[in-house]
Design brief:
Length: 74
């Protein structure tokens, strides 16, 4: 899972990670915790460190870029 998230962050500003407890976080940076490789350390978009286990991840969603539509530019 770490490699998937790391790969997605190469082309996206952040990813949304949904966890098994129904919570979710927008992560912009990720690394492995040095004392336990099953634990990941993410930095969220508010610059808080989040420690989580890979087995708690349900889905990972790439950053969705919104499309700007100018209604006056016809």
């Amino acid at each position: 899972m770490f490699d998937v998230i790391k790969s997605l962050l190469k082309t996206n500003d952040h990813v949304v990670i949904n966890f098994s407890d129904s919570s979710s976080r927008e992560i912009k940076k990720i690394e492995r915790y040095s004392k336990n490789l099953d634990i990941l350390v993410g930095t969220d978009t508010a610059n808080f460190l989040i420690y989580f286990s890979t087995d708690k991840i349900v889905t990972v969603i790439p950053d969705a870029h919104t499309t700007h539509i100018n209604p006056l530019n016809i």
